[in-house]
Amino acid sequence: MLLPEYRQEVLEKAQQTVIDGLAYGAGGNLSVQDPETGLIAITPSAIEYAKMIVEDIVIIDAHGKVIEGKWGPTSETPMHTIFYRERDDVRAVVHTHAPYASVFAIINEPIPMVVAEAALCVGGPVQVAPYTRPGTDELAQVVLETIGSGVSVLLGQHGMITVGRSLDEAYSATIATEVSARLTILARSMGAAPLAIDRQEVAELREMYLKHYHPTSSDER
């Protein structure tokens, strides 16, 4: 079986999205790329995460061709593969229908940076890509253009997508985006306007995260 470790990682993170309330049933999709071979482990289409096993994860190339797997990959494969082809810094993609972030996606409003975690993991307000039909090459292109060099973007009337240098990093951006959306909504429900973190501070926090956020041994401290 090709890329068993990456398959296991994708399976575990997919099941975690359900635990974290970011997906239901088979909603959303995840992938990670092996930097050595360029092959991608990606969730299959229409299989519930709770019932999924590691052998269900599909291996494709950067153009979406199935290399190994008994199922077809997610219908949103174009939205994953475009990042692996166009951005050298991306090794993982996470697409969810996170409920609080999706509120901003349906009202066409960017999510502000209101907490330090979001500044660290995301690095700037999360913009909304115009609605485009799911599963299309057109959607993939619109998402790529809207996210730019960022790591998180909303899909109009749809959900959210995040990218990262690893699946853990992309998933952290997903959680940070959803938390920011939830806290903003809660603050507004109290009749208060949440205060966004200064843009320069956001940029500096993001730079600090990219340079220094990784496990360190006791000798390095």
List the helices and strands and how they pair.
Elements (H helix, E strand, L loop, with lengths): L3 H16 L9 E5 L6 E3 L15 E3 L5 E3 L8 H10 L5 E5 L2 H9 L8 H6 L6 E2 L7 H11 L4 E4 L3 E6 L2 H23 L9 H14 L9
Parallel strand pairs: 6-7
Antiparallel strand pairs: 1-2, 1-5, 2-3, 3-4, 5-8, 7-8
Commentary on this structure:
The chain is an alpha+beta fold and 221 residues long. Strands 4-3-2-1-5-8-7-6 form an 8-stranded mixed beta sheet, sandwiched between helices. Helix 5 links the parallel strand 6 and strand 7 (152-155). It contains 7 helices and 8 strands, in the order αββββαβααβαββαα. It has a single domain (4-213), classed as Class II aldolase/adducin N-terminal domain (L-fuculose-1-phosphate Aldolase, 3-Layer(aba) Sandwich). The mean pLDDT is 94.
Give the CA-CA distance, first to last residue.
40 Å
Tell me the series of helices and strands, N- to C-terminal: HEEEEHEHHEHEEHH
Instruction: Please tell me the total number of domains.
Output: 1
Q: What name does CATH use for the topology?
A: L-fuculose-1-phosphate Aldolase
Name the strands of the widest sheet in spatial order. Answer: 4-3-2-1-5-8-7-6
Specify the CATH homologous superfamily: Class II aldolase/adducin N-terminal domain
Q: How much β-strand is present in the residues? A: 5-15%
CATH class: Alpha Beta
Overall pLDDT, averaged?
Answer: 94
For the sheet with most strands, the description reads:
8 strands, mixed
Shape: globular
Helical content band:
40-55%
Oligomer: single chain
Using only C-alpha atoms, the radius of gyration works out to 17 Å
Return the structural class: alpha+beta
Low-confidence runs (pLDDT<50, min 5 residues)? none
CATH structural architecture:
3-Layer(aba) Sandwich
Number of helices: 7
- The total count of strands amounts to 8
